[in-house]
Design goal:
The chain is an alpha/beta fold. It contains eleven helices and twelve strands. The strands form three sheets. A six-stranded parallel sheet has the order 6-11-10-9-8-7. The protein has a four-stranded antiparallel sheet with strand order 3-5-1-12, with helices on one face. A two-stranded antiparallel ribbon has the order 2-4. Helix 10 links the parallel strand 10 and strand 11.
Length: 297
């Protein structure tokens, strides 16, 4: 089995077949056998222009994938991006213009906006966390708490917002979590079993251990081959003690109950990474709309 390497990777929509399939499936989900309303009202030869407009401040993400929606539905629709992904945007900003047959524009409207709104919402929230820890060494990272089927876009949006991608899937790195530890009968037993298998079969695979207390941190530190220790739901005092105990021997990740109002304090304990599940499991979609601005026969 070959592990996937997605950490902070830039993804080209035209080279990644998974994204192409995802966009195609999203179009089929919305379009089905056809857009009955548009076909009933809009003449097939009616052309026009449209604009995609942002209605609240945030960080733009997903414009290239929105463009691909229209490429699939009607290759003759001209999609012109006016803002780069990752840019800060204010209400009223026109981020793209479209020209061509209005039937193609209207058929792709909702799918393109769904992609833009979700990805921009994730990128916006990520940027808020990144800004909150600015000046510390801590990096904001995501989790696997993504919308089913949309992980590649969710994680891409985190990257655009300035965050760092954690493992993409279960085959991407080793993460010994609380349930693994419970099944094995303790941290040391779980690490023993893991190392004996992973170092033989996947020698290049990075290994992280989730810990719940300082005793588990001490146990994990006894092993060579561990790359990162996660401090799960530690209070700030114990987190500081754990960072001092680890003393740069491995990377340190803080996780659990991370919010905008406490992330700075967590970063100041000296951890290397702070994982935030909320980036992808409960982002607020950015308000973005598409408006027809002119028509011509």
């Amino acid at each position: 089995m070959t592990s996937r390497s997605h950490h902070s990777e830039m993804i080209d929509v035209h080279e990644d077949s998974r994204i192409l399939r995802l966009v195609e499936e999203a179009i089929h989900e919305d379009l089905g056998m056809g857009d009955i309303t548009t076909e009933a009202i809009v003449p097939p030869d009616l052309r026009g222009r449209a604009e995609i407009i942002v209605k609240e401040s945030g960080v733009l993400a997903g414009l290239e994938y929105a463009a691909h929606v229209f490429e699939i539905i009607d290759p003759e629709v001209q999609f012109k991006p006016l803002v780069n992904d990752g840019s800060g945007i204010e209400p009223g900003t026109v981020v793209a213009s479209l020209g061509g047959a209005l039937t193609g524009i209207l058929k792709g409207e909702r799918t393109a906006l769904n992609i833009l709104q979700r990805m921009s919402g994730i990128a916006t929230l990520t940027r808020k966390f990144v800004d909150a820890v600015q000046g510390t060494k801590a990096k904001i990272t995501d989790t696997r708490k993504t919308a089913p089927g949309l992980r590649i876009l969710d994680k891409r949006a985190v990257h655009i917002g300035g965050g760092v991608n954690h493992r993409f899937g279960l085959d991407d790195m080793v993460l010994i979590k609380d349930n693994h530890i419970a099944v094995a009968g303790g941290v040391r037993a779980a690490i023993d079993r893991c190392l004996s298998t992973v170092q033989k079969k996947y020698p290049a695979m990075k290994i992280e251990v989730e810990t719940k207390n300082l005793q588990q941190v001490e146990e994990a530190l006894k092993y060579k081959g561990i790359h990162r220790i996660m401090l799960d739901n530690f209070n700030l005092d114990d987190m500081k003690k754990a960072v001092q105990l680890i003393n740069h021997a491995v990377e340190v990740e803080a996780s659990g109950n991370v919010m905008l109002n406490n992330v700075r304090a967590i970063a100041e304990t000296g951890v290397d990474f702070i994982s935030v599940g909320a980036l992808t499991h409960s982002p607020k979609a950015l308000d973005i709309s598409l408006k027809i601005v002119s028509t011509s026969s």
